[in-house]
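Notebook, bench 3.
Goal today: get a predicted structure for NAD(P)-dependent dehydrogenase (Short-subunit alcohol dehydrogenase family) from Streptomyces demainii so we can plan the truncation constructs. The sequence was checked against the plasmid map this morning, with no discrepancies at the termini. Length recorded as 203 residues. Pasting the sequence as submitted so the record is complete.
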Amino acid sequence: MRIAVLGASGRTGGTLVGQALERGHEVVALVRTPAKVTVPAPRQVEIRQADVTAPQGFPDLTDVDVAVSAIGIGKGDGPGALVAGARRLAAANVRTVWLGALGSGVSRRSGGMIYAGVMRMFVGSELAEKAEADDIALKAGATVFHAPDVTDGPLSSTRRIVPLAELRRPLLPPRISRATLAALLLDEAETGKHGNGIVVPLG
């Protein structure tokens, strides 16, 4: 497949690119600053400058099979970056797998009471924007991943994707390794199994 990765220069995006190449896919890396991207297999990676806050210059994606978003709200980003990213992919008219956060919007209580408190404490000011971006992606037909806290660690052999409506609320704050999250995003990009809706990736 030909997979576009939005936010390919970030930690999760970089993991996505590496795993996609290992699976034999071609990758279109969408990044704001191309000079920050180093790729292991340049023949299989096309780098396109993509500033989500500049819609007139956002690249055409009609030549890709699916887009996977790994953007977040980074240091130095002003408010609106996530919403802008969701709008750019919605306008691109490409099948999309969108990365959101468990504990935002409709899943605000789904991670359990402790997790909800942690999210309010550390992500509080960003929760509304995350929910708005998710809503834009959903209305455009995307599969939206509400990922729990992301950690370093190995790829889980028991990884799975659960529809939000079927998630059992955990007692302790849930976590997932970055490698496992990237693998599950790619699984969905390849299969489109869960279609339009909110799902939760689990290790």
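Residues 144 and 198 are 5 Å apart (CA to CA). The beta strands are 2-6, 26-31, 45-49, 66-69, 96-101, 143-147, 149-151, 160-163, 175-177, 197-202.
Flagging this for group meeting.
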